[in-house]
Design the sequence.
């Protein structure tokens, strides 16, 4: 089948799909506005060219095309998922969700495994993509994989500056997306909770000299830990307790400045892991967000750059 997509200069920008009648279910409600001419069927849609490009690439070439061009990017997967959902192409939607799980994992092990995808240097994800992710995942059935991915997406949205959370973020095609009020409320509440969680994790890690300390005669882990606790206390309000801030601190404690012994470092590492696990579990407990559909995160159509 051939699908030709043409961009029309109109407001809001629309695409014209030219379809071969032979391959289209003309009874489909989506086709009610299609016009027929000598070239086949013509259908005007408001989906962006970027969204269509990735859906069609996957339809024609499968997911392999993404790997061949560049690392798999969030915005391309989100585009294809958005349209696959809209046009009920479930096989593609499910495959997109499988790939998107790397960005928004449902287990803490996977969260750690895919840390580099979310790192500032990542070419596949930029922090403000979290807004688009929340809106996309909220539009999908909450009982499916999207529901399990939402807590991680909310967490990443809560890492954004308040101004971005409130005014929204632009998709790569220029469409401005803003969170619906229930999601805004949730992200702001989460942001406050995570600041408290990060401070609590800091306290838990530095709480006393671990059993099994082997500092020996000429150094004191107690003094080193107390000093580090004080030095890092102010920075502990970062609100990203699932990030690597505490782990980086712990690694540094072995150096000349704090001179904490190996067994203590190992014990602090364990404390940090337990704190993160607790925070992760709290993020996933309670009624699943999204069981009441938000009045959709609304894509502010027509604001393309
Ligand atoms: Zn020690």
Sequence:
């Amino acid at each position: 089948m051939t699908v030709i997509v043409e961009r029309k200069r109109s407001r809001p920008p629309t695409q014209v799909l030219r379809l071969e009648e032979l391959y289209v279910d003309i009874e489909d409600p989506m086709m009610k506005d299609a016009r027929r001419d000598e070239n086949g069927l013509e259908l005007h849609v408001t989906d962006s060219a970027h969204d269509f490009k990735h859906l069609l690439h996957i339809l024609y070439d499968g997911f392999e095309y993404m790997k061949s061009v560049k690392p798999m990017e969030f915005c391309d997967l989100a585009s294809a998922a958005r349209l696959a959902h809209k046009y009920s192409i479930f096989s593609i939607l499910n495959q997109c969700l499988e790939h998107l799980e790397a960005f928004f994992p449902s287990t803490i092990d996977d969260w750690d495994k895919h840390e580099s995808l979310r790192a500032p240097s990542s070419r596949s994800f930029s922090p403000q993509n979290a807004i688009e992710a929340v809106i996309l995942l909220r539009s999908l059935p909450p009982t499916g994989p999207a529901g399990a991915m939402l807590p991680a997406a909310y967490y990443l949205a809560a890492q954004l500056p308040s101004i971005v959370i409130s005014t929204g973020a632009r998709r790569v095609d220029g469409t401005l997306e803003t969170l619906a009020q229930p999601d805004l409320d949730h992200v702001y509440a989460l942001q406050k909770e995570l600041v408290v969680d990060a401070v609590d994790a800091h306290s838990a890690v530095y709480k006393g000299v671990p059993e099994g300390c082997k500092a020996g005669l000429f150094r004191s882990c107690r003094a080193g830990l107390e000093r580090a606790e004080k030095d890092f206390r102010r920075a502990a309000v970062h609100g990203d307790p699932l990030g690597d801030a505490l782990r980086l601190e712990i690694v540094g404690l072995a150096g000349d400045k704090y001179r904490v012994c190996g067994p203590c470092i190992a014990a602090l590492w364990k404390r940090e892991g337990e704190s993160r696990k607790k925070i992760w579990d709290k993020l996933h407990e309670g009624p699943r967000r999204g069981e009441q559909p938000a009045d959709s995160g609304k894509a502010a159509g027509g604001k393309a750059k």
